[in-house]
């Protein structure tokens, strides 16, 4: 982790991002599906926010978590959108060090926030299945709001040191990043000064997110134990069906996230193209798929979304 600093080396104030190596000539065409995915993700999450905000029947604790998830997804989309569009639409790969550090803060912040929301939602499903009669008294609207604010504050505090630890480093000669956006583990590798603090604190943040995924797994073990104890086959199928959307959201978020973290720690054994594709999946797919999952699998939301579309004249009755 100790990198020698040569006083004769020129300081770097601008980093270079990458698109898809070898396909620079068709970046403009690749930008079309990327722009469509961003547009659908933004429209889908804004629809979730609008429907839950304007529909009184959805002002219940079990639906309060969806706006939190939608806000996290919107944050992820808007954090990576500027550099992705600049690269694929305009072939502009330069980014200032300050802008890069700011971007990595927002990307990691909203990633940590989404991880926290998914953890809270798993607890919500556990309470709903384990104590259905006491659910509304355990998770009141005010309690849900306080839990959400506490986890949002925790997410900000957890990633707040990252930009400061990157800012104190010196960068010289090397300026080429591995993605079309800035990540902490990618930027710190370019430093020519001691980056051990960054390495260990970045590892700590990654372990915190891993602990979220492990707690989610624990909640699902308890959920399965509770559901399998129900006598009726139809009842436990119905109970498990309420967890399908959340399970899919957990998988599409954590699988690419954990895979990317492993790839960054084993760079010599990983194809750069594979790393770019996994990173793109991590930022593009969850914001795109979460609104679709919850609209398709949650009948109350699906019905209200269709009603809103009919009222706006976008669908025939």
Automatic annotation (TrEMBL):
Chief place where the protein resides: membrane
Domain G-protein coupled receptors family 1 profile, first and last residues per copy: 44-294
Location of the protein in the cell: Cell membrane; Membrane
Any single GO BP term: cellular response to lipid
Family, as annotated: Belongs to the G-protein coupled receptor 1 family.
Role played: Putative odorant or sperm cell receptor.
UniProt protein name: Olfactory receptor
UniProt source species: Muntiacus muntjak (Barking deer)
């Amino acid at each position: 982790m100790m990198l020698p600093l040569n006083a004769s080396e020129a300081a770097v104030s601008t980093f270079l991002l990458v698109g898809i190596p070898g396909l620079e000539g068709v970046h403009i065409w690749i930008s079309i599906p990327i722009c469509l995915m961003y547009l659908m993700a933004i429209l889908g999450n804004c629809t979730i926010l609008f429907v839950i905000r304007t529909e009184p029947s959805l002002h219940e604790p079990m639906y309060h978590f969806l706006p939190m998830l939608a806000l996290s997804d919107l944050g992820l989309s808007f954090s990576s959108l500027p550099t992705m569009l600049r690269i694929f639409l305009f072939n502009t790969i330069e980014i200032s060090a300050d802008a890069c550090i700011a971007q990595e803060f927002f990307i990691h912040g909203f990633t940590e926030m989404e991880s926290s929301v998914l953890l809270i939602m798993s607890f919500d499903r556990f309470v709903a299945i384990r104590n259905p009669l006491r659910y509304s008294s355990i998770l009141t609207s005010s309690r849900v709001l306080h839990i959400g604010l506490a986890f949002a504050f925790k997410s900000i505090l957890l990633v707040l040191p990252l930009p400061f630890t990157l800012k104190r480093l010196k960068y010289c000669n090397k300026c080429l990043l591995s993605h079309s956006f800035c990540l902490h583990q990618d930027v710190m590798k370019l430093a020519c000064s001691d980056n051990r603090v960054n390495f260990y604190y970045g590892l700590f943040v990654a372990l915190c997110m891993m602990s979220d995924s492990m707690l989610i797994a624990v909640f699902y073990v308890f959920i399965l134990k509770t559901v399998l104890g129900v006598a009726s086959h139809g009842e436990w199928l119905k109970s498990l069906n309420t967890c399908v959307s959340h399970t899919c959201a957990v998988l599409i978020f954590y699988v690419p996230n954990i895979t990317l973290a492993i790839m960054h720690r084993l760079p010599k054994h990983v194809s750069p193209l594979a790393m770019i594709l996994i990173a793109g999946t991590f930022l593009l797919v969850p914001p795109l798929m979460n609104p679709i999952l919850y609209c398709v699998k949650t009948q109350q939301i699906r019905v209200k979304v269709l009603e809103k579309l009919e009222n706006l004249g976008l669908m025939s009755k």
